Amino acid sequence: MFTNKLNSQAVITNKRVSKLPHALAIMSTSLMIGLSMASMSAQAAGLGELFANNGAAKSKFLPVDKAFQVISSTKATSKGTRLSINFDITPGHYVYKDQLTLSFPKGVSATPFTFSQSPVSIDDPTFGKVPVFTQKNMVATTTLTTNNGKGAKNAPIIIGWQGCAKAGLCYPPEKIKTTVDIAVTRK
Hints:
This protein has helices at 2-16, 22-50, 64-67, and strands at 68-77, 80-89, 93-96, 101-103, 108-110, 114-115, 120-124, 128-133, 137-146, 152-161, 163-165, 169-170, 174-182. The chain has 3 helices and 13 strands. Strands 1, 2, 5, 6 and 9 form a 5-stranded antiparallel sheet that branches. The chain has a 5-stranded antiparallel sheet with strand order 7-8-3-11-12, with no helix packed on it. A hairpin with a 2-residue loop joins β1 (68-77) and β2 (80-89). It has a domain at 64-181: Immunoglobulin-like. The longest helix has 29 residues, at 22-50. The chain is elongated. Keywords: Signal. GO terms for molecular function: protein-disulfide reductase activity. This is Thiol:disulfide interchange protein DsbD.
């Protein structure tokens, strides 16, 4: 697609300078292509400064998997299956409380999350005043059940969350796909 844009620009340029000698038209087209490539190289270099680029440059920000280590675990209970999502948060980073979500198949329900830590309120440049977790470790817990009370094997669950670096970078929303065996509920 990028090549097509360059080619169409080259055609337009050639039409505009059709009265000039053919060599001058080719040189101006080459100059436009060269400037476009230089711009792309500058953008790539800028991204390389944000995140480590093969260790060649010291990164200002950690990759998302280094800033946040997220692990989920489950435990069968008489009320269903307890899903725990453990966040190890690197100092200088935070996780949005309200961006923690679960997606699951029809026929599965989840209780509201409970948290091992209390969130703090910050004035976030993206979302305004919001609750976030800044502690080194935070665990979000919910209980999953089936609507018919029967168990379910390998129910697909998607955990959504988002975090930021206090230094000024919000990572894109993350999704973790997993499967969960949902225990039979007993009364």
